[in-house]
Design goal:
The chain contains six helices and five strands, in the order E-H-E-H-E-H-E-E-H-H-H. The protein has 167 residues and is α/β, with parallel strands linked by helices.
Length: 167
């Protein structure tokens, strides 16, 4: 949806696991009409549609190294709000995540709404445009197409070869 039709400030739905999500649930689950946080989506609330109606999609890390939620947010053209501790973002050796996402500290979870409302409309539009621009780097094509996820992975491997030393 275009930014003017994104009526939800922030959205998250997911399981309670890891160290960060309990903090998010304790602070926000069922407590705010603008920051929608659910462990289980209510009946009639479609996950992907709600992402498309949201300006920001909250992406807290869980137990896993990576979460599909960041990519789902990018597919929905929803600005990812990354909450993690020492998480290396996908393709961070190539992509400037500050140009299309918001990263906050776990200690700032209580100020999540304040932080997001503090982002100017102009900056939000730049972030959302950035999400649109990087979207192609997370798409799986068969056969692979230039700059899609296959090429991004190969490029990342190629860059990392510079850091590997064979004795």
């Amino acid at each position: 949806y275009p930014p003017c039709n994104r009526t939800i400030l922030a959205f998250f739905a997911g399981q309670m696991h890891g160290r960060i999500r309990p903090v998010l649930f304790q602070q926000w689950e069922g407590k705010d009409k603008d920051v929608l946080v659910y462990e289980k989506l209510p009946d009639g609330v479609p996950y992907h549609e709600t992402m498309k109606k949201s300006k920001y999609c909250i992406c807290p890390s869980g137990f896993e190294v990576a979460s599909p939620r960041i990519v789902e947010a990018i597919y929905a053209q929803c600005v990812p709000v990354i909450i993690s501790q020492q998480y290396v973002l996908p393709f961070s050796d190539v992509l400037n995540w500050d140009s299309f996402s918001v990263q906050i500290l776990v200690s700032d979870v209580p100020k999540l709404k304040e932080i997001l409302l503090g982002i100017s409309e102009d900056k939000y539009m730049r972030l959302q445009e950035g999400v649109k621009q990087v979207q192609r780097h997370f798409v799986v094509n068969n056969p692979p197409k230039r700059y899609d996820v296959f090429h991004m992975i190969i490029h990342s491997i190629w860059l990392r070869r510079l850091n590997v030393r064979v004795k």
